[in-house]
Write a structure and sequence with these properties.
The structure is a single chain. The protein is mostly helical and 95 residues long. The chain has one domain. The protein has 3 helices and no strands. Helix 1 packs antiparallel against helix 2 and helix 1 runs parallel beside helix 3. The longest helix has 30 residues. The termini are far apart.
């Protein structure tokens, strides 16, 4: 059974994945409208962010089978700050 900190970490990873995917969609539209080196860089950044967060959702699920809160809590802190950063970037990008 997954502990509450692992569940929170996995949920935040899924939220970060969703925000990164949203950024990828917006940056793809921007690149198609006005191709530039900068917008291509944003595409690469958001593409890697999507992959990293998809991997973390799966990896955290399997890590939760063997490790307890002593591992989940620091990862939760990282995911809180990461999700906040993606949220701020998404908000600024969307406006």
């Amino acid at each position: 059974m997954l502990g509450k900190y692992w569940i929170a970490t996995i949920v935040l990873s899924a939220i970060a994945f969703s925000l990164a995917l949203g950024l990828l969609i917006v940056y793809t539209r921007n690149w198609r409208a006005a191709p530039s080196r900068f917008s291509r860089g944003l595409l690469v950044f958001s593409g890697f962010a999507v992959l990293a967060n998809a991997f973390s959702v799966v990896a955290f699920y399997f890590l939760a089978q063997d490790y307890g809160a002593e591992v989940a809590l620091p990862l939760l802190g990282i995911k809180v700050s990461e999700s906040a950063a993606y949220g701020a970037l998404f908000r600024v990008t969307w406006e």
